[in-house]
Amino acid sequence: MKIHQHPSPNFGERRRGEIPDLIVIHYTAMGSVDDALARLCDPECEVSAHYLISAQGELVQLVADKKRAWHAGAGAWGACTDVNSRSVGIELANDGRSPFSARQMDALDSLLAKIIGRWSIPPERVIGHSDMAPMRKFDPGQRFDWRRLALNGLSVWPESGTAQATDIAQFTVDAQSFGYCATGEFETLLSAFRQRFRPWADGPLDATDMSLISDLAKRFPVDQPLLNT
Known about the structure:
Blueprint: E1 3-5, E2 11-13, E3 22-27, H1 33-40, E4 51-53, E5 59-61, E6 67-69, H2 83-86, E7 87-92, H3 102-119, E8 126-128, H4 129-132, H5 146-151, H6 168-178, H7 186-197, H8 207-219
Parallel strand pairs: 1-5, 3-7, 3-8, 4-7
Antiparallel strand pairs: 2-6, 4-5
Helix pairs in contact: 6-8
């Protein structure tokens, strides 16, 4: 796996001596990979990521893993509220509407395996931007193949169990146990969950939602050793 170096000035030190224990996947939502690269390296934009992968599978590193890239912004996963200090950010060149190419996904698989191995990151801590910031973000979007990552041991996927009666309060508790921050309207939380695990589902909370989030909460309770602020 060849990684091209294109340093961005937009980074800092990880706070409190943190090391990466999360990986956050994004899409660029821009017209071209060159446009994305220019933005991620523009000091006035104050945004960056550790890696950028083109649709052709070309991989660029912008910020060293040990440094704090500015990709996540406001949001949380479990008790972690400074996601930038605890994560590696990966941008996929995609407009948010198009399928992700096979070459791009192959490159992502290889990169994830390398980062997970280097930092001993559990697959359940590979998340999307929309998972940690459901009030304001939608990436990597409905077309991203999370199940593929899970089959390759690079993320997780729920198993369906016994159908359960719908219960908004219980769904919220289970979603928080998995890692979601249940702030704002319930519909926002449900939408973030479905975007990742049931991307074409619609309508009110149903028994399938209940079964899947219950399984995730039981098998992959979020790691909260420290309450970061």
